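Weekly puzzle thread! Below is a chain. First person to post its structure in token form gets bragging rights.
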Amino acid sequence: MEQPFRKDMSHLSWDEVYARQMKRADLVPEWMDALALKAGDRVLEVGAGPGYVSLVLAERVGPQGLVYAIDRSAEALAHLERLQRERGVSQVRRLVADAATLDGEDLEANRALCTMVLHHADDAAALLRNLYRLLPPHSRIVVAEFHPQGPCEVGAPREHRLAPEQVQAWCEDAGFRVLDMRRQTPEHYMLVAERAP
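Winning reply:
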């Protein structure tokens, strides 16, 4: 019998969460392209978990770039730390924090990625407001979620999915200008937004 949905992912091991992240590998290049992510960039990844996407981002930004991997779980980031050691990846900085309240005074990110995270957040609107505060003007952000009209064969159950219009409204209320909103698969959609000056 399938376990009930838990926002904190406590019903899964971090290996299982990493395997779930890997199943979304085909979505990641589109996220990076939408961010115009290039070598030397400094990208903030919200809800990095055990780090599959963080490691892909690290490859894109290269040794001169930096990935800030933010997650509330120290155990998830310990999983990422182990993978970094095994693979010799040094350009990922792990931060145990809640992105909705992160101070971030020592962050220097010029891009942000917030994917499959908002449906886990206690206050998604506050999280987006804080990301606006953390980023410099004209920074790009990609927000991706599970579509409520998707088949629900993977990901969050329908009652925990967020409508794209709601996410767009939260982004705009935070101060972001939404540049694009598109369906990636029957299950997934993404928004591309820019931080206003």
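Puzzle host: Confirmed. Bonus trivia for everyone else. The longest helix spans residues 74-87.
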